[in-house]
Structures are given as structure tokens and as C-alpha cells.
Specification:
By secondary structure, the protein is an alpha/beta fold. The chain is built from 14 helices and twelve strands. It is elongated, with a radius of gyration of 21 Å.
Length: 342
């Protein structure tokens, strides 16, 4: 059995969470011994589609006509389209209808969390949905004191400085406005946000936030995963103030690095991330400040070891085994359809 891993406009999304997810899929399949290709011109038995543009839609229909198995990965929902880019709220209903039309082409749909699966069901999806994490590369994301030292040296932080790191696109949904507000509230703490989005694509309030000049606030832009690893080694707290996710790969990276993490208390994290055990949850900006100060002052215990356990069960090896099982089931369904038809 051979699998086609497909993502429309891969170069454009390479720096996004979806781009990371596709990289993880390839490494997971390699670890599971699954033969795969990125080239739609190659022969394949099952196509695993990650995007919902017109080329993805056409490929899914072509695969169906050829009797190929189709796995559709639901990386996005209507909830995480909102509060993203300019006019995203106005176009969200239209995008959602198109996205669901694409997902319905799948013999099997993959959602990264039970929460994401439930959103699909709520939207009327009746196709079988399997929950498979995007996974985390535990071999790469490991603490290294020398990396942390290099990170602090590069960005002008001293050993005694208290540093809070966040990672994400420059979009309101990611909580960037609260991040800047926290920097204003906590002048004794350094705040640094990695990630980038062209500012012409975001609302004025986000542009204003990113261009805010504070002595304890930095926006270095997009950096590679080696520098992300260094930042997660050298920071005191990883802050993930996102308001909506389908999982959050950067969160898994921070947990894998045994960082103490503070997140927004949103429904997606219910049931698998326990407040005060794996990390800390905050309902509003006051709670964010209280939680961060508690960790930095030592009045709240660090949660790195328990948080690591959450990342550990989502290793790429585990993801590879799950994906292999899904492909086998879909391929068997394909064979049954072919036999019945013919």
C-alpha cells in the first residue's frame, strides 16, 4: 500500500501549524514503515489530503473516480477561521460551507482532538471521524541548557531576567492583544513573541499591537525550529493565550521541552490537560497575570515533568501507528467497493 500525502500550496503554508503537521505526518509514516509520496503523479492507493482549496477538491474527486481511498485531515474549523485575517469573520460562513463540502469527500476524516471531532459532528459531518494528534517530535524537542544560554545572549537577556515566550501568527485569535497588554502590566518581565504574518492581512488593532514599543516587548518574527527549541530552553514560562485551536502543535512542543505553560482556559483542553498538574489555565487577563507571576515568583510549582507526559503519548511513532491503521482500514474499504462493483 502506498499513500499520497497532499497539501495544496505547501510552500505557502510551510511556516504554519498545518505545515508542521504535514512534516510530522511524513516522519510518522517513515517511522511506521508506510510507503508514501508527495507527488500526485505517482501511483498510490490512499490519498491523505490536508488542505481544502480547489486543487484539493479536484484531487479528492479524481481519487474517488479512480477507486482510491480518501483520508481527509480536518485541520481547520469555522471557529478558528474567525478573528484571524482581514474580513475572515465576514467570509467564515462561506469558507465553512466549502470546507465541510471538502471534508465530506473523505472515506475517513482525521481530527486532531475529540473537541475538533465534536465540532465536525455538530456541523453535520456523518463520515467516520478518527482522532489522531498532530504529534510531536520528541527526538528534536529536548531541553538543552546551552541552547537556553544562546537564546538569552542573542536577545540581550541576562540570567536573572524573567522571560515569557509565545509563538504564533500575528492574528487576534492567537491572543496577541492580551500578550501586549500583559507586557504593559508586567514591566519587570520580558515578553517575546515568535511568528509572523504580513501586517496588511490583519486588522488595525493587531498591527498596532505588533508595532507597540515597550522596553520589555520583542517581536523578532518567524524563526526556525532550532531557535524555537532554544527559546523554549531559555524561557521561564511559555504563554499560549490562543482563543481557539484544533490542537496546537507549539503547545505540544513546549510540553515536550518540559516548559511550564500557561494557556487560556478554553473547551478544547478539557479532559486531557489538567489545571495545576500539566500546566496552568487562565480565564482572563487578570488570571494570566496571576498565573505567570505565581510561576515566576515560585509560589506556583513548575509543571514541566507532568506536562511532558502529555507530549510523550503523542510521539510521532505513536501517530505513525495510528495513521497506518487508518490507511489499512480505508484501503480495505476500497477493495470491498471494487469487488462489489465488479
Amino acid at each position: 500500500m502506498k499513500v499520497l500525502l497532499y497539501a495544496e500550496g505547501l510552500r505557502l503554508i510551510a511556516k504554519s501549524g498545518m505545515g508542521k503537521a504535514i512534516q510530522h505526518q511524513a516522519k510518522a509514516l517513515a517511522s511506521a514503515g508506510v510507503d508514501f509520496t508527495f507527488d500526485p503523479k505517482d501511483d498510490y492507493d490512499v490519498v491523505h489530503i490536508n488542505t481544502y482549496g480547489p486543487a484539493s477538491f479536484l484531487l479528492a474527486n479524481k481519487a474517488a473516480r479512480l477507486g482510491k481511498g480518501i483520508v481527509y485531515h480536518a485541520h481547520s474549523s469555522v471557529e478558528d477561521i474567525r478573528n484571524s485575517f482581514l474580513f475572515s469573520n465576514q467570509f467564515a460562513p462561506l469558507i465553512s460551507r466549502w470546507m465541510l463540502r471538502c471534508y465530506r469527500l473523505g472515506d475517513r476524516i482525521i481530527a486532531p482532538t475529540p473537541y475538533a471531532r465534536d465540532l465536525l459532528v455538530k456541523c453535520g459531518i456523518r463520515n467516520p471521524v478518527s482522532v489522531v494528534s498532530n504529534g510531536i517530535d520528541l527526538d528534536w524537542f529536548r531541553q538543552a541548557p546551552s541552547d537556553g544560554t544562546a537564546f538569552r545572549r542573542k536577545y540581550g537577556y541576562h540570567a536573572h531576567d524573567r522571560v515569557v515566550v509565545a509563538i504564533g501568527l500575528y492574528i487576534e485569535r492567537k491572543g496577541i492583544l492580551d500578550f501586549v497588554s500583559l507586557a504593559r502590566r508586567m514591566p519587570d518581565t520580558q515578553f517575546i513573541w515568535f511568528g509572523s504574518t504580513p501586517l496588511f492581512m490583519v486588522p488595525a488593532r493587531v498591527r498596532e499591537a505588533v508595532t507597540t514599543e515597550l522596553p520589555n516587548l520583542k517581536f523578532p518574527g518567524y524563526v526556525g525550529r532550532d531557535e524555537i527549541r532554544a527559546a523554549l530552553s531559555g524561557a521561564d514560562v511559555f504563554l499560549f493565550p490562543t482563543k481557539e485551536e484544533t490542537e496546537g502543535i507549539v503547545l505540544l512542543e513546549a510540553l515536550a521541552m518540559r516548559q511550564t505553560v500557561v494557556i487560556r482556559d478554553i473547551p478544547i483542553y478539557e479532559g486531557w490537560l489538567e489545571d495545576g498538574v500539566h500546566l496552568y489555565k487562565a480565564a482572563d487577563i487578570d488570571a494570566f497575570e496571576t498565573r505567570i507571576r505565581g510561576v515566576l515568583d515560585g509560589t506556583l510549582p513548575r509543571t514541566g515533568e507532568d506536562g511532558y507526559a502529555v507530549a510523550e503519548v503523542r510521539s510521532l511513532e505513536a501517530v505513525g501507528r495510528q495513521l497506518a491503521g487508518i490507511y489499512e482500514a480505508v484501503d480495505q474499504q476500497r477493495e470491498i467497493r471494487r469487488t462489489v462493483a465488479g
